[in-house]
UniProtKB/TrEMBL annotation:
Keywords: Signal, TPR repeat. SMART domains: TPR (SM00028). The keyword Signal applies. Pfam families: TPR_19 (PF14559). It comes from the Bacteria. Residues 1-26 form the signal peptide. It comes from Salinarimonas ramus. This is Tetratricopeptide repeat protein.
């Protein structure tokens, strides 16, 4: 019995010291990688807001959108790819089911909420879509596609002022969003009676 206790104590001490030593280095590296990735994304948003070229803006926006699709979890990424396939195949109900599973794994992944909002829109459920978009922009306030999507949903619901504010937020982040300038000009005339 005494040998068992000594072996158990030695094993516990060994495992405890290994556990204490390994995660620290790994955690620091992971935190540095996350900080570097956040810095690169912030730089992309800065470039997007500053560029005067629509074609350059398209390229920068694509880079940002690729970052949105990176959850950090291989399982969540695989489920997202399947959800995207379901949406391309016009099966939004399956996409929602898959994204619900993703959100159990990665509840802070803004793009998962955004894709589910798109699927709800495909199912003609604007209330659920709007709720998910509000979640997206609370997690990633610079998500220009979510702001534009919210603008479209609010415009369809007859909330011109809310739609205008959403589109303006999208344009503040991505000044070269296709067709949004014309929509903002039209809504401004309707809401404020101002011709831009």
């Amino acid at each position: 019995m005494r040998r068992f206790r000594l072996a158990l104590i030695a094993t516990t001490l060994l495992l405890g010291s290994l556990a204490a030593a390994l995660p620290l280095g790994a955690g620091v590296r992971a935190q540095e990688a996350s900080t570097n990735a956040d810095t690169r994304v912030a730089e992309l948003y800065d470039r997007l807001a500053a560029t005067e070229s629509a074609s350059e803006a398209r390229g920068i926006a694509l880079l940002i959108q690729r970052r949105w699709l990176e959850s950090g979890s291989p399982t969540a990424d695989l489920l997202m790819e399947r959800a995207r396939q379901a949406m391309r195949g016009r099966d939004p109900a399956l996409a929602i089911e898959l994204i619900d599973r993703i959100l159990v794994i990665e509840p802070g992944w803004a793009e998962a909420w955004n894709r589910r909002a798109i699927a709800f829109t495909m199912l003609d459920d604007p209330v659920a879509a709007i709720a998910d978009i509000y979640r997206v922009v609370s997690l990633e306030p610079r998500h220009f596609a979510a702001w534009a999507g919210l603008g479209n949903l609010l415009m369809r619901a007859g909330d011109e002022r809310g739609a205008l504010e959403s589109f303006e937020r999208a344009l503040a982040i991505h000044p070269h969003l296709p067709r949004i300038d014309a929509i903002v000009a039209k809504l401004s005339r309707e809401v404020d009676g101002v011709d831009l």
